[in-house]
Design goal:
By secondary structure, this protein is an alpha/beta fold. It has ten helices and eight strands. It has an eight-stranded parallel sheet, with helices on both faces. The model has no long low-confidence stretch (mean pLDDT about 100). The structure holds ligand X7A and manganese (II) ion (MN) (3 copies).
């Protein structure tokens, strides 16, 4: 199956410089050549050009709403094009606010999609529950029908119509939730495998139950939104919001191998790689290498050969 790669060098969903370099560092690790060597037809669409929107005012605690909204509209159009071209879409971030556009654009082409969200965080704050106002902690809240009435009108966000229901998303790797997020997840009954469940069940059972939950009513396209901070900082430290006690390297690859094995992967986000947050060259290369291995494992790289 053909693959389309879209670079999304975006950092305005949070406040740490460097995450906009993610696409460049991942490309420099020869991702395109490695996917080609796996036998895939790969089209690299290059990087989107994101501009700050002039006169972009903070709205309460949320910062640069017009810029975040505009970047995600651009990305949504790009992802929709890749899907219309019959390719599996790979979005290289950039911060996780990009999932708004990536999932929205994917759903425009494949409305029956489901989402696997691999992350230390739930990214489901609304503008009113967010403790920081950073949009990379909020993308899921704009996508869920059940939260629509809880989202205030935000300049630059009027184009976003929710495209997911609570049962269409599963979380894996959670270990750092804000109170509002915990309440929302419990109240909506969203399926979530925190690191406690990973420890209790093992990653094998977690993947089995996650896929059963999403695919119980039949096959449907999978959108895998992979935040590199899901992986333990000992493996991927170069990221904006590292949290200890994360997925091992092996578990991070296993998640991708199992998603690949469904044969249903339709779009992949790899986000929050921030080269400026690595204390050493080795920390940066370890983080980038983990991201590349997640992608390669999503597309058939197997440890068994
Ligand atoms: N939940 C946080 C972190 C979001 C991380 C975004 B991701 O997953 O894309 O990297 C805030 C986290 N929390 C704030 C109070 C102190 C402890 C951390 C937020 O800012 O909403
Ligand atoms: Mn292929
Ligand atoms: Mn995260
Ligand atoms: Mn995230």
């Amino acid at each position: 199956h053909p693959i389309g790669i879209v670079g999304a060098p975006f950092a305005r969903g949070q406040r740490k410089d460097g995450v906009e370099k993610g696409p460049d560092y991942i490309r420099r690790a020869r991702l395109v050549a490695k996917l080609g060597a796996q036998g895939h037809q790969v089209k690299d669409y290059g990087d989107l050009k994101f501009e700050d929107v002039p006169n972009d005012e903070p709205l309460g605690r949320v910062k640069m709403p017009k810029t975040v909204g505009s970047a995600n509209k651009q990305l949504a159009d790009a992802v929709k094009t890749v899907k219309k071209n019959g390719q599996t879409c790979v979005v290289l971030g950039g911060d996780h606010s990009l999932a708004i556009g990536s999932i929205y654009g994917h759903a425009a082409a494949r409305p029956d999609l489901c989402v696997v969200w691999v992350d230390a965080h739930a990214d489901i704050n609304t503008p009113l529950t967010s403790p920081t106002g950073n949009f990379h902690g909020q993308p899921v809240s704009y996508l869920l029908r059940e939260l629509h009435s809880k989202i205030p009108v935000i300049p630059g966000f009027s184009w976003i119509k929710p495209c997911l229901s609570a049962q269409d998303i599963v979380y894996i790797g959670l270990r750092d939730l804000d109170p509002g997020e915990h309440y929302i997840i419990k109240h909506l009954g969203i399926k979530a495998f925190s690191m406690t469940e990973v420890d209790r069940l093992g990653i094998g059972r977690v993947m089995e139950e996650a896929c059963d939950h999403l695919l119980s009513k039949g096959k449907r396209p999978i959108h895998l939104s992979y935040d590199i901070d899901a992986i333990d900082p000992s493996v991927s430290p170069a990221t904006g919001t590292p949290v200890k006690g994360g997925l091992t390297y092996r578990e991070s690859v296993y998640v991708a191998e199992e998603i690949c094995r469904t044969g249903l992967l339709s779009a992949l986000d790899v986000v929050e790689v921030n080269p400026d947050r690595g204390k050493t060259e080795e920390e940066v290369s370890s983080t980038v290498s983990a991201a590349v291995d997640v992608v390669l494992s999503c597309f058939g790289q197997l440890r068994e050969g």
